[in-house]
Amino acid sequence: MGLIIQQRALQAAGGLREVLPVVRKRDRSLFDQIHRAMNSVVLNIAEADGNDAGTARARFASACGSAKEVRAGLQLAIAYGYVPGTKVAAVDIALAEAPLRLARRHECPCIEGLGKRRDMGRSRRRKCQSAKQQPPQIGARVEARLAWSKLPS
Fold first, then answer.
1. Which of 90, 6, 87, 14 is nearest to 41 (CA)?
2. Cβ distance 131 to 101 under 8 Å?
3. Is 149 in contact with 9 (CB distance < 8 Å)?
4. 28: pLDDT confidence band, cut at 50, 70 and 90?
5. How far apart are CA 105 and CA 3, in angstroms?
6. 135 Cβ contact partners less than 8 Å away, ≥ 6 residues apart
7. 16: confidence class by pLDDT, cuts 50, 70, 90
8. Angle between the 28-49 and 19-26 helix axes, to the nearest 10 degrees?
9. The pLDDT of residue 43
10. Backbone phi, then psi, for 115, in 5-degree steps?
11. Rounded mean pLDDT of 7-13?
12. 144 or 62: whose pLDDT is higher?
C-alpha cells in the first residue's frame, strides 16, 4: 500500500461505515451503487500501482470516475433525506480531492471521447476538467486536511 491516494481512499471508505447501513435500509439500490463505486475507487488505485503506464492511466481514470460516482450517490442520499449532510462532509471533501490527486499522480486520468469500442485504441486524450480547474485555495487545502484527519484510520 505505497500510494498515499490509496490510503486516503481507504480512509474515505471507512468514513462511509456509519452512512452505508442507513442508506441500505432506505434505498437498497443506491446503497449498492455507492458501495460498488467505493470498492472500485480503492481497487482500481491498487491495480494501477502495479501496472505499466498505459494501463495505470486507465485504472486511475476509472478510479477518478468512481470517486465522482460515490460523491453523486452521497449527494442523492442527502437530497432524499436519508442522511444529514454533516455525516458525509468529511468523506465528500476527501472524494472531491481524489480526482486532483489522481491527476497529479499520473498525468491526466480522465479519458474523454472514447466513443465506440473500435475507437478505443486511437482515441485522443484530452485534458480532464480536474486539470483545467484552478488549484484549491489555501483555505480549501487546510479544510481538506482537517477532513482527512477526522476520518477513522
1. 6
2. no
3. no
4. very high
5. 9
6. none
7. very high
8. 140
9. 93
10. 60, -135
11. 88
12. 62
Run of H or E including 22: helix 19-26
Sequential DSSP letters for 44-78: HHHHHHTS-HHHHHHHHHHHHHHHHHHHHHHHHHH
How far apart CA 138 and CA 66 sit, in angstroms, is 26
CA–CA dist 17, 99 (Å, integer): 22
Question: What are 81-103's pLDDT values in tens digits?
Answer: 999 999 898 888 888 877 766 66
Per-residue HEC secondary structure of 99-122 comes to HHHHHHHCCCCCCCCCCCHHHHHH
Domain ranges of the chain: 4-150
The residue type found at 73 is G
Sign, CA torsion 43/5/51/118: positive
Cell of 32: 449498492
Sign of CA dihedral 97, 58, 10, 76: positive
Burial profile 40-75: b = 16 or more Cβ within 10 angstroms, e = fewer? bbbbbbbbbbeeeeeebbbbbbbbbbbbbbbbebbe
Condensed to tens digits (0 to 9), the pLDDT of residues 105-134 reads: 554 444 333 333 333 444 444 444 444 444
